[in-house]
Amino acid sequence: MKITRKDFLRLSGLGLLALAGKKAVRAVGERSFASSSPPKKRVRWGMAIDLQKCRQKDGCDRCIKACHSTHNVPQFADRAHEIKWIWKEPFKNVFPAAQTGYTREFFGDLPVLLLCNHCDDPPCQDVCPVDATWKRDNGVVTIDFHRCIGCRYCMAACPYGARSFNWQDPRPAIAMVNPDFPTRTRGVVEKCNFCEERLARGQGPACAESCEEKAIVSGDLEKPDSEVRQVLRSRFAVQRKPELGTGPSVYYIV
Amino acid sequence: MSDRPLILAGLTLFVGLVTTPIWHGALDRKTALTAPPIKLPAQEKQCVAPTSYMRSSHMRLLEDWRNEAVRDGQRQFVAFNGKTYDKNPTRTCVTACHTDRKEFCGRCHDYAGVSDPDCWNCHNDSHQASRSAP
Question: Which of A48, A243, B101, B108 is the most buried (most CB within 10 A)?
Fold first, then answer.
């Protein structure tokens, strides 16, 4: 069969038209599909710590003990090797700008519970050269210990001092190993993981669960009717160094 | 022609030396061609994947488990036979089945010349699990 020049042009024109039509149909279809399915719901785990309730029992460290035994946090006598997941600091060091000379008299030396803030925009994630630390879909900032190369950039980037480096093998410094959570090894950075492994099982953070005074309330900050949002609505709460724009997920009710 | 015995002796010595790996391997019982005897789990008969796959690709499976559990938060593994397992080397692998990993993992790794993997620097093996049990 011989095809004339005119037929060839006609056929290619029709072909192009059909192709354009198919694309248009697909684009319209996609738009209607996108509008029919609701946008993916964001989850952001957060915490509100009631400092007044936290001070009720003098020297109480149930939450710290619960966290350390759950996560095999080593206890080194030498402070230079200290591994911190959840710890206490005096108020004047935690909120240096949030006080007058008179509040210092009372608040200055009161202990404040500290942990990783699980920032909305975590600077540790930005500096990690190997993607070993990142924010999960549920807002928890985690570390992949397999991938960590121990460069400690994240420790320098964290404005809250929430990260610690394993200068030596931590195993000998763990009194009782919890077999359900791995220990760490020499040369990796670690910090609070918001009990990410417990959240996956539908449990709350160990520190919050262990607190008899219910000073720690955790929940989804994106859910308007969550317990933590209700607490934050009814009481005045502050974050650590909010001016840095990291968006901490840990709130303190002073 | 008077050098013939000397040449033959030299040749024999040379061939003998060059073929050392072959006859040494054949004589030495430690480096047998058969796989080393490993200690199989007492109660469990079926692993999370067929034996042939585990033998050749267990490292691949463990790496996939690691990446999926840590990076994507997918902690459940549906095996080929429909059973579901936790992607947990401590609970699923060494405390439930391969209680003596030196006798299971170690023997093959020694045989194959694999340097000891560093999984157990962090992950608890059955020894730690039983030691910390009250």
Answer: A48
**Could you give the ipTM of this predicted complex?**
0.76
Q: What is the SS3 assignment for A113?
A: strand
Same domain? For A68 and A88 the reply is yes
Phi-psi region of A187 (alpha: psi -120 to 50; beta: other; left: phi over 0): left
Task: Enter the pTM of the model.
Answer: 0.78
Count of C-beta atoms within a 10 Å radius of residue B51: 10
Clarify whether residues A9 and A108 are in a common domain.
Answer: no
Partner residue opposite B128 with nearest CB, options A137, A169, A177: A177
Please, are residues B62 and B87 in contact by the beta-carbon 8 Å criterion?
A: no
Interface check B59 vs A, CB under 8 A: no
How confident is the prediction along chain A (254 residues), in pLDDT tens digits per residue?
A: 788 999 999 999 999 999 999 999 988 877 766 555 566 788 999 999 999 999 998 889 999 999 999 999 999 999 999 999 999 999 989 988 877 777 777 788 899 999 999 999 999 999 999 999 999 999 999 999 999 999 999 999 999 999 999 999 999 999 899 999 999 999 999 999 999 999 999 999 999 999 999 999 999 999 999 999 999 999 999 999 999 999 999 999 98
The residues that bridge with A49 in the sheet, in sequence order, are A216, A252
Shared-domain flag, residues A114 and A62: yes
User: Within the 105-134 window of chain B, which residues sit less than 8 Å (CB to CB) from chain A?
Assistant: 118, 121-124, 128-129, 131-133
Chain B residue numbers with beta carbons less than 8 Å from the beta carbon of A137 are 73
- In this structure, the answer to whether residues A17 and A49 fall within a common structural domain is no
- Domain range for A19 is 1-36
Residues A1 and A116 both lie in one domain: no
Looking at the structure, do residues A115 and A218 belong to the same domain, yes or no?
Answer: yes
User: How distant, in Å, are the alpha carbons of A37, B73, B86, B122 from that of B89?
Assistant: 38, 15, 8, 11
Contact A246, A123 (CB under 8 A): yes
Indicate if A119 and A226 belong to the same structural domain: yes
State the smallest CA–CA distance between residue B33 and chain A in angstroms.
35
The shortest C-alpha distance from A70 to chain B (Å) reads 12
For residues A28 and A56, membership in a common domain is answered with no
Count: domains in chain A: 2
Name every chain A residue with its beta carbon within 8 A of the beta carbon of B123: 182
